[in-house]
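Methods — Computational structure assignment.
A single polypeptide chain was analysed. Its primary sequence is given first, followed by the predicted tertiary structure written as structure tokens.
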Amino acid sequence: MNLATDLPAIVQGAGVLQLSILVASAMVPKQLDWKGHFASLPKLLRQMYWIYGAYTAATILTFGLFSLLVPGDLAGGSRLARLVCGANAVFWGVRLGLQGVMDARPFLTKWWLRAGYHLLTLLFLAFTVFYAWLAVR
């Protein structure tokens, strides 16, 4: 393995994995019964929740597409690449930190939901470490 030549492919793989998280994100409203739980909230609060979800999904989409479409640039270490990778690391680091304060246990009722939750946690950790490394190397 030659890191200099393989790094863009690794960045692309990370991009694919980031985009795959959108599949899990799309399952959240149904799995958590947003429609039922949010029914008693004022319309504005329901709308805000969907907007926050859309912004989060758009951020994941953006970082995933950057990694998928311009992996050589991100692996190249320019100032802009390091800033983009740093922003990506901060995003996933914050998301990783949120795993520690969210109480998802009541919703992890099936083995595949528990496995998916733990897989997501590992991905959040991997993205944080990988993109932080790209930003500071």
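Note: Residues 3-136 form one domain.
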